[in-house]
């Protein structure tokens, strides 16, 4: 498995510094939080996109994916949602990133069935565009669809190879799923896995990997047992928790912890 970290852990940090961290601490890739307050976002010019892609190549670091915020199950018109997904897909293509992350974002007075149908309809439409660009859209286990079983209600309706799943191990745990259950649900569609650690369900301040309660050992074990060889991406939510320790000093211990889990699982 390859290791990456998300720029959610280093909010606003210039890309050159992000790439320097990846190379210095032994990470193969970076997940880019794709938001207007970050260096990489859909508003980049063609020249800026080319420079960004070149910087990744020069550093020998892979752009794992774009972590967007499109709520695909949210109430409202389809067109703005699909257009936002397409903008992320265009950016991913230009940067050479294989994945784009979207959120479920259901609720708003809809029934679960309505939210599922809304998300599946939009993702199915966007999937055809994604196929032309050779980029996959990944639905994260998050908010209204926090478990693997929840996400599969949508993915089962879509049934398109360009739409897959992003397993956030915190949200499936919060939803009461065991890692073996989450993997069984998501494995046919799994793009990559977000790892993290927290103190408890009530205190989600990010912690160093291995210092909290999330079942990282079990997650790595089930992935290894099934010979899954994708990406593990550390999503350290520093952007939302200003008092959390800086990620910079945690990157090498975090990589070593994941390497230890992988070795033990092997």
What does this protein structure show overall?
By secondary structure, the chain is an alpha/beta fold. 43% of the residues lie in helices and 17% in strands. The protein is built from nine helices and eight strands. The protein has an eight-stranded parallel β-barrel with strand order 1-2-3-4-5-6-7-8, surrounded by seven helices. The longest helix has 22 residues. The radius of gyration is 17 Å and the shape is globular. It starts with a strand and ends with a helix.
Residue windows where pLDDT falls under 50 for at least 5 positions: none
Largest sheet: 8 strands, parallel, barrel
Radius of gyration, CA atoms, in whole angstroms: 17 Å
Alpha-carbon distance between the termini? 11 Å
Could you name the key traits of this structure?
266 residues; alpha/beta; eight-stranded parallel β-barrel; 9 helices
How do the strands and helices of this protein lay out in sequence?
Layout: E1 2-6, H1 15-25, E2 29-33, H2 46-59, E3 62-71, H3 78-95, E4 99-103, H4 112-133, E5 136-140, H5 148-158, E6 163-168, H6 169-174, H7 179-186, E7 190-195, H8 216-225, E8 231-234, H9 251-265
Parallel strand pairs: 1-2, 1-8, 2-3, 3-4, 4-5, 5-6, 6-7, 7-8
Question: Quick summary of this structure?
Answer:
The chain has 9 helices and 8 strands.
């Amino acid at each position: 498995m390859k290791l990456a970290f998300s720029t959610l852990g280093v909010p606003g940090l210039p890309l050159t510094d992000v790439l320097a961290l990846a190379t210095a601490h032994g990470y193969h890739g970076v997940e880019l939080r794709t938001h207007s307050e970050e260096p990489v976002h859909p508003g980049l010019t063609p020249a800026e996109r080319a420079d960004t892609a070149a910087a990744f190549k020069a550093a020998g670091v892979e752009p794992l994916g774009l972590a967007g915020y499109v709520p695909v199950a949210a109430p409202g018109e389809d067109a703005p949602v699909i257009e936002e997904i397409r903008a992320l897909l265009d950016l991913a293509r230009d940067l050479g990133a294989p994945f784009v992350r979207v959120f479920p974002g259901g609720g708003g007075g809809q029934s679960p069935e309505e939210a599922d149908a809304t998300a599946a309809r939009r993702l199915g439409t966007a999937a055809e565009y994604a196929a032309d660009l050779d980029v996959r859209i990944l639905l994260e286990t998050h908010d209204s669809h926090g478990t693997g079983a929840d996400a599969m209600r949508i993915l089962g309706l879509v049934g398109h190879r360009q739409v897959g799943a992003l397993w956030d191990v915190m949200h499936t745990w919060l939803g009461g799923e065991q890692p073996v259950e989450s993997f069984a649900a998501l494995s046919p569609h799994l793009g990559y896995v977000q790892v993290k650690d927290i103190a408890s369900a009530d205190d989600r301040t990010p912690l160093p990997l291995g210092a909290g309660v999330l079942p990282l050992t079990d997650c790595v074990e089930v992935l290894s047992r099934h010979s899954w060889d994708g990406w593990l991406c550390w999503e350290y939510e520093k952007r939302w928790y200003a008092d959390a320790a800086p990620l910079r000093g945690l990157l090498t211990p975090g990589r070593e912890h994941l390497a230890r889990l992988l070795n033990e699982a092997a």
